[in-house]
Specification:
Elements: E1 4-5, H1 6-13, H2 17-25, E2 33-35, E3 38-41, H3 45-57, H4 62-66, H5 79-108, H6 118-128, H7 152-157
Antiparallel strand pairs: 1-3, 2-3
Length: 159
């Protein structure tokens, strides 16, 4: 494959030219020259852009992704960093699962109003403490996630 200008690279990857220029400015990709006013890229940049897209999809910042490449441009991905990100995702899944379960309960609850439902009120207290929306205040394990189900007496009172 021949060298690609920014427009061709944008067409092949689906990324806007402005994103490609920004990635170049951040040092994530490197142009190999110019054809007139157009930047040229080696076709191997497509693999690099795919790695960047994967990192973004996993929730890594562009700075973190930049650190995953050696000075020679080859990927150098820290497995511990991947494990840590996977654990962050597990915590997010736990938080989102608790939120989903609480919302489903609220939608089906037989209490006269949501404010009379003990489970809904527990969900409100957890949210007020930042337990559902502020990752830096998140529990460190699933065991620490708040239970929205409550005890046996609560289950009967709000079902």
């Amino acid at each position: 494959m021949k060298d690609l200008d920014t427009a061709e690279l944008a067409r092949l990857t689906g990324l806007p030219a402005s994103t490609l220029r920004y990635y170049e400015e951040k040092g994530l990709i490197v142009s190999i020259g110019r054809r007139g006013l157009k930047r040229l890229f080696d076709p191997s940049v497509i693999d690099r852009l795919s790695l960047i897209a994967l990192g973004r999809a996993a929730g890594f910042s562009l700075d973190e992704i930049g650190g995953m490449f050696a000075p020679d441009g080859e990927p150098r991905i820290d497995r511990d960093q991947l494990t840590e990100k996977a654990e962050d995702i597990d915590r997010s899944i736990g938080r989102l699962t608790a939120m989903r379960d609480g919302l489903r309960h609220a939608a089906e609850c037989r209490a006269p109003t949501h404010m009379e439902c003990p489970t809904f009120r527990r969900l409100m207290r957890v949210a007020a403490k930042g337990g559902l929306g502020h990752p830096r205040q998140m529990p460190q394990s699933r065991a620490e996630l708040p239970s929205l189900r409550g005890g046996a007496s609560t289950a009967r009172a709000d079902s």
